[in-house]
Structures are given as structure tokens and as C-alpha cells.
UniProtKB/TrEMBL annotation:
The keyword Membrane applies. It holds the Pfam family 7TM_GPCR_Str. It comes from Pristionchus mayeri. Keywords: Membrane, Transmembrane, Transmembrane helix. InterPro entries: 7TM_GPCR_serpentine_rcpt_Srj, 7TM_GPCR_serpentine_rcpt_Str. The chain crosses the membrane at residues 25-51, 71-93, 105-129. This is G protein-coupled receptor. It comes from the Eukaryota.
Length: 138
């Protein structure tokens, strides 16, 4: 588009177009970073609150507490999969070009890692929940 050929990486945002800072792109990145980090923070906060309230319950049996904690662990791991495979590559891919750091490795693995996240999500659940493992084996 600008008469320049980029051979070693794909360019997500051209932050420094003609060596000038593009405020529109930066505001977009700030909004998207805020959304991503807010979602990760809220999920972490809710997981902690669920764990806390499960363990202070006095009207349920220890076995029910164990099962609830096991399900909460599975839910947390299932929530961590998109965080690790989608949000973190997204944050790196969007923010690294801002600092003019050549990180072609991050850009090259972002798309495949994001594409494989549904598969890893299913694998994690099969590994964590014995009923799913038995169903797969049967």
C-alpha cells in the first residue's frame, strides 16, 4: 500500500506511518487492550470468589465441596485455554509493533495458535473430566 515490501512479518497495525504516530490506531489498541485485560481480570476475580464461597459453605457435605472444587478447576482451566491461546497472542501481536520491536515469531505463530484453541479446549476437558475420558474410550 505504501510502496514498501515487508518480507519477514505480517503487519497488523502501521503505528508509525511515515514516521508519524497514528493516534486513531493507538486509541483502538488502548480500547481493545482494556477490553481484553478487563475480561481476564473479571474471570480471575469470579473464579477466586467462587472458590472462596465453595470452601466456606457449611451446609454441604465434604464430598460436594470436593466435586464443586473439581468442577471449578475444570472451568478455570477451560477459561485459561482461550486466555493463553487467544488473548495473549492478540495482546502481543497488537502491542509489539507499537514499540518497533521486530518479533516475527509471535506474528507467525499467532494465527495457528488461535486456530487450534477449540481443539485444545476439548483436549483439556477430556483430560480433566473422567466421564469424558471414559466416553471417549468407550
Amino acid at each position: 500500500m505504501y510502496g514498501k515490501r515487508i518480507e519477514h512479518a505480517w503487519l497488523v497495525f502501521d503505528h508509525w506511518r511515515d514516521n508519524k504516530f497514528d493516534a486513531t490506531l493507538i486509541s483502538t489498541i488502548v480500547v481493545m487492550n482494556t477490553v481484553a485485560l478487563t475480561l481476564i481480570s473479571l474471570a480471575s476475580c469470579f473464579a477466586y470468589l467462587a472458590y472462596y464461597h465453595i470452601n466456606i459453605m457449611t451446609k454441604i457435605s465434604p464430598k460436594a465441596v470436593y466435586l464443586q472444587n473439581k468442577l471449578l478447576l475444570a472451568l478455570c482451566v477451560q477459561a485459561a485455554v482461550p486466555s493463553v491461546l487467544v488473548y495473549i497472542p492478540y495482546l502481543l501481536s497488537m502491542n509489539i509493533p507499537l514499540f518497533c520491536v521486530p518479533m516475527t515469531f509471535i506474528h507467525n505463530i499467532s494465527a495457528p495458535v488461535t486456530a487450534f484453541f477449540p481443539t485444545w479446549d476439548a483436549v483439556v476437558m477430556i483430560l480433566l473430566i473422567p466421564d469424558y475420558r471414559r466416553g471417549l474410550a468407550g
